[in-house]
Amino acid sequence: MTVKVKHLVIAALLLGTALSLLQFVVIPKLQVRAAVKDYAAGAPGGKKAMLAAIDGAAPSQRLELIREYMVSYVDASSLRSFDVYVGPGSTYAFGQGGEESRVWSWEEKLPYLLEYVSEGPADSSGYSAATQLAQYYMSEGLSAEALAVLEKAEERGGNWRKKLVLERAKLYARLGDSGDAMRLVERLEAEPQSVDLDFSGEVAQLKAQLLVGEGRADAALQAVDRELKALEERIAEEKEKFPEMGELTPAKLEELRLLRRQLEKALDGTGATVSGTVKRSDGKPLARVGVFLRRESDVYHSIVDGEPYQILTDAQGRYEFNNVVAGSYQLYLGLPFEQIDGWTWPTMKDDWIEVGSGDALTENVTMRPLIDIQEPVNGAELTGSTMKFAWEPVEGASTYTLYGTIPIESGTSSMAIREGVEQSEIELYVEDLYETGTSYSFRDVDGKHELDSASLLGFSNPELRYLWYVEAYDKNGRLITRSNGYRLNEDTIGALPFFYLKEREVTAADRLMLDGRLDEALAEYKRASEADPLDRHSLNMIARIYGAQASLANSDELRERAIPYLEALLQLAPDNRNVLFNLFDHYDRRRQWDEAENYYERYLAAGGGKTDGYAQSLYATSLMKQRRMDEAIVQFREALERDRSHRFVGRYLAAELYAGASFGKIAELAAAYPERAPYQSGPPDWRKLIEALAAESEADKAAYGKLLKNALEAGFDGDWQAADTAGKPALRAFTAALRKVD
Amino acid sequence: MERESMNKRLREELDGLRFGGQEDVLRRTHPRSWRDRLRALWNKELEIPVVPLGLSFAVILAVVAASGLRSPEDDGDAASGDSRQLIEVGGNTYWKDDYERAVASIESDGQG
Questions:
Q1: What's the CATH number for A373-505?
Q2: How do residues A480-536 score in pLDDT, each as one tens digit?
Q3: Which of A3, A4, A488 sits opposite B94 (nearest CB)?
Q4: ipTM value of the model?
Q5: Cβ B90–A484 below 8 Å, yes or no?
Q6: Cβ–Cβ of A488/B98 closer than 8 Å?
Q7: Phi and psi angles of residue A579, each rounded to the nearest 5 degrees, phi first
Q8: What does the domain layout of chain A look like in residue ranges?
């Protein structure tokens, strides 16, 4: 080919341009894209790629990347960017079924955030970067730096300046410098109103907290009232201006109303302190763990920004909340995977922190290593008539509770197999395991709610892979540790807690159950039982089918049908606690007291005298219905100590009322045993109900006493209609609440 | 005859034209000034072997592209390019890939 030099030169130039375009524009763009993709997917190396992309990017894009992927990725607040949140009775991972950690360590992101605060835009991302830095500095004990970074961001102005001032005020409050905090609050109050409906409420909330800290709860209440009024007026205004916006309730309004209720209760009191350390049992402090002191009304939802007590632990694992308003709280932790992997925080479902005004409470958190399980593991196929569970003993453990887990259609279902196990191993008859009371699941067939018949087989399905775990308790019944938790690396993954129960074979009736043909299965079990009266499995299954159908249809008639089979089963397995308790419950419902009493005693004896809060409460209720009040009261009291949700406290109070205790004493008891049902829409406030009774009785005490007794009598006899016609509103409210106890 | 008349007509028609580009032609054929030399070089014709040159370009391009586009997944330490999922099994939480590997290993043990 012949070309002229000029064409060659032009071609070379063009090629050069194209190459440099590729090198300096296209490739970095692609790199950023690949980094973003990997990072967003949480792929290993994603963080590294993202750092490289940021470092290689042009200045404008650099800030953009820092904003997008460091400052505001996942969530604006570093308190919301943990992998796992643990609280009493609940653990959840961020973004269910989460991915590998995308959380930046502070070593990684510190220089970038600092750069962003001084060079990035003064907008919400700048605010977020500054507050994250402030939290970090606080956790490092560098309060001066924390204040300085907020002030620096403030000086850059912008719409978020006031929020930064508020943050700084909160920081002063946290540092115990309420003078400076109050000065900033007053400065904010003097400024023109912000468009953000929530903002002034937030300021008022802090002000109220500061006032409570000074012991001026009344002034705090006034401040909140003022703000509530202003907020309500503003909402009305907004509604007038924008009628198409419909119902508008800023989150802050709810917050303030809640705070108001709390303040009302805490009037005349001063703010409390709740502090402690978060450590491992080997003494290692856990730094920069999120600690959340959550109010009773908040624990049923996941942690949100509006909750007032949130903090990171410092390098020594310490945390401290000041100016805590009196009330009931639960402690939650936020942890990265590394800190929980192989460890557990043995908190229990009904662990509440009762904060009184002026209290200085210490709540230390100790993480414990998970229990190593020994057998059965890794899918062992058990064929003997007995089986052994064994695990590594736990120091200081007085008893263990063994749990089994059954896979069901929509997940798994767990139940206690044995409580109060004193050794770190236990040998069980598999037949007893088959008869362990398991729960059953439902499924929707053509829009109808139906029993999932396969789930009724419980542990007696040789085809199913079962799982187990164990919990260790000290002599006071406090959980020490458990075998189930986060097992995320080779050292912690341990043996898999799987086993198969292949001692029995699937019968024809079982096959029908597995195929979902419940009625045919029931008939087949009955046939099998008639053919072989010693067939425990068939008796158990018949009773179980009727029991499940009865509770689905809430039918006493179906419940009755199970009884002869339960009694026959008891002949063959006289110590089956599950059957004994079912029979107690049955005869109690029928008010056949002698039989009920007999079965409850046998139930107790079969468990070596041990019972649980639920069973004991039902027994106490039975005694109450028989008017054996003194005995009922003793049983209720013990049960209330065992079951700290106090779900049966209403019945206990009724028993005390009937026995003639004074309203004052009963109100005290109600306050001492508050009913906890955070997942329901507010349990009854028994103290208030009792106080209302007391007030109502004032007019004519003698007549009221009679009325009360009659209403209680009617209630004990299950005649709620009669109990309800009492005609006095407070009495009506009490009996209505009493009726709902279960 | 016809040729003769054609020639004559041509002469008549070209009679008004005079060639005045002698200098320009000389400058191009025998460049003296640096400008002329440069222009000569600029317009010089080269004989280029297409196949070897094209191939070498292709190789260079491929190398550049490969070095520039190396994705982070190839950076060595990554175990797998896919994101890791958590799985909860009977109260325990594992990485799904770890868990599946463990299950596969116990199942193969069971058969073996």
A1: 2.60.40.10
A2: 999 999 998 888 888 899 999 999 999 999 999 998 888 999 999 999 999 998 999
A3: A488
A4: 0.71
A5: yes
A6: yes
A7: -65, -45
A8: 1-57, 373-505, 632-742
